[in-house]
């Protein structure tokens, strides 16, 4: 089977926004794209059928840390990989677990070999190394796998950020070596993406972007942003990284973000996004819509029988009313969590597909500048 291919189809004349197509052995992905987060192998409260028919997702995420702990690689291998286990037959990307090791795990100890950490589930001790993380992702069987990195907190002092970045680079070299020395398990090609780090220091970000570019892997990821820094700083460093990364490789900005964050970062040259925000916020009564942000818990929606959002292409968003969803959320009915999550994800996928249309049409910037204030409106 073939390695991942990226075809750059069009670049916006007034920005760095791009439209492209990623081809994997499990199908094609039109970029820019948003990837719903399925941490433990499922997108919370959604079925595969809903992801396909309502959300219109083209690729979803799994997470190495969580899948390693539950159900474990033995179960995943017995199933034939995550695609067979969860029934999703389109592309999957797995995060390496680096962020979770540093944000969830207790009593972690970072050393050259890797990271010793305690499970957030039962406190048991585990060791993640670049090699073991590659092995786990081979067992999961995602189409795109991520290198093991350290994600430094914000803010980090320069000395720590530099030391962390250099460790990430050494780990990356080990990831590449081990990945290339181990075979695909399930008869299709997996692809390794390196991750840019360097905190919020221009020279470190530049050096890391150049290091990642020189690996000549099939794509590149930008990590360590959207971790508490101001939005404008996130945009500044996203642009810096994109300017250094290869034009003919897809660029993945990890963990970003709000709908307006996504549009602004598309304008800076990013192709791929993921974030838990649409599902997490949906479960907490916040809806993103084509007309602005709705707190569906608010009493003002109690007798509003208009659709959740008739401006996007989603049956659930067009069919169910604000009043009904508010009732479900207030009653703590689990169906409400599903409807809110489906709607928010469908909105995010609608947004990136519209962005793609406007990149291809050559009017992306004017469209974005008109839409962003609308999306930020609190209804």
From TrEMBL:
The keyword Nucleotide-binding does not apply. InterPro entries: ArchSynthase1/Queuine_TRR, TGT, TGT-like_sf, tRNA_ribo_trans-like. Keywords: Glycosyltransferase, Queuosine biosynthesis, Transferase, tRNA processing. Belongs to the queuine tRNA-ribosyltransferase family. Pathway: tRNA modification; tRNA-queuosine biosynthesis. Its EC number is 2.4.2.29. Substrate binds at residues 95-99, 149, 197, 224. This is Queuine tRNA-ribosyltransferase. Homodimer. Within each dimer, one monomer is responsible for RNA recognition and catalysis, while the other monomer binds to the replacement base PreQ1. It comes from Lacibacter cauensis. GO terms for biological process: tRNA queuosine(34) biosynthetic process. It comes from the Bacteria. Residues 15-371 form the tRNA-guanine(15) transglycosylase-like domain. The keyword Hydrolase does not apply. Pfam families: TGT (PF01702). It is an enzyme of class 2 (transferase).
